[in-house]
Amino acid sequence: METTKKKGTRTGFTTGACAAAAARAAALGLATGRVPDEIDCHLPNEQIVRFAVADGRCDGHWAHAVVVKDAGDDPDCTHGAHLTADAYLKLEVPDTVMLKGGAGVGRVTMPGLGLEVGGPAINPVPRRNIEENVRAAARDLLKRMGLEIVISVPEGEKMAKKTLNARLGIVGGISILGTTGIVRPYSTAAWRASVVQGIQVAARQGQDTVVLTTGGRTEKFVMQELPQLPPACFVQMGDFLRYALDTAVEEGIRHVVIGGMVGKLTKMAQGETITHAGRNPVDTELVADIAAAVGAPAEVCADIRAAETARYAAERLEALGLGDAFYHALARRVIDTLAGRYPGKFQLKVLVCDFEGKKIAEATGNTP
């Protein structure tokens, strides 16, 4: 009998936590003359975690330390990354910790991330956490001189190709991230945060349009439909419709395009703000009502009510030659539902594709 593989629950550590641990170990090496084999690091969530330190070296003016990232059971492309810190003495600037990005750490090229354009993609929380750990390790040393900490990630540029960094204007490597220091496996919080950040980046680049999609296939579809828009306008919102639209309103986005297939669009039409398949079942009463409105026979509508998926309705209606009318009516229902929730906030377009990623309908309307 086939069994479903369970998702693991083991937590791991963020790139920010590993960078802070490596930086602390390197700073301690400069302060004491020896980089330790293990280091206790204070995480942003106030936990103290002991990390193994690899490749510890120092010569009195420079120290080097590596912490290998363990992402736990999270399917993270940075699992196994070598977060590397090089610490240098700066005699002329006592009590100063300067943080720089080295090879494999992304460089910010666009506004909207809350980071300096041209600077390293080290987010504010990890940035503070790295400095706090460095100061704790080298408190006495910093009374006499400053430290420059360079964070690098061998293979970071290759890892970044598996992320959305380029679309956010981060080039040349990965971001140093983490608000708590802990990675929770299969975390929806990380995706939700990336949705919000993606819309903020588009807005701060002066874009007045965002295109929200439920996954890679629908994103490819809408990119083909809207080739005139820059990449920053396209945001994979996944199941996080409410967070995406709330952020669009907060950022003053005036045009919202939603690309999707029949199942997720039905969830939106019925008023679900989180469209995950496991949250609430498809409202087949609603689907049957739409089917009836486009001319489906009563017996077909009854079958649709008794079914469990919107896809079943689509297939039945296509067989009757009513597919186009159904998809258009569904798109209109999405607009009507969202117009009630966001009156006057943006103009909305809904693009519908089939399971091969081909366009089958669209509808446009203002939220009144």
What does this structure look like?
With 368 residues, the protein is an alpha/beta fold. The chain has helices at residues 15-32, 124-137, 139-142, 156-160, 188-204, 216-225, 241-250, 262-269, 284-293, 298-306, 310-319, 323-341; strands at residues 12-13, 38-42, 48-52, 54-58, 62-68, 82-90, 97-101, 104-105, 107-108, 146-152, 170-171, 173-174, 182-183, 209-213, 234-236, 255-260, 347-353, 359-366. A hairpin with a 3-residue loop joins strand 4 (54-58) and strand 5. Helix 1 (15-32) packs parallel to helix 2 (124-137), helix 5 (188-204) runs parallel beside helix 7 and helix 8 (262-269) crosses helix 12. 44% of the residues are buried. Mean pLDDT is 90; it is low at 1-6.
Strand order of the largest sheet: 4-5-6-10-7
- Which structural class do the helices and strands define? alpha/beta
Number of domains: 2
Taking all Cα atoms into account, the compactness measure Rg is 25 Å
- Treating each run of at least 4 consecutive H or I residues as one helix, how many helices? 12
Average predicted local confidence, pLDDT: 90
End-to-end C-alpha gap: 54 Å
Order of helices and strands: EHEEEEEEEEHHEHEEEHEHEHEHHHHHEE
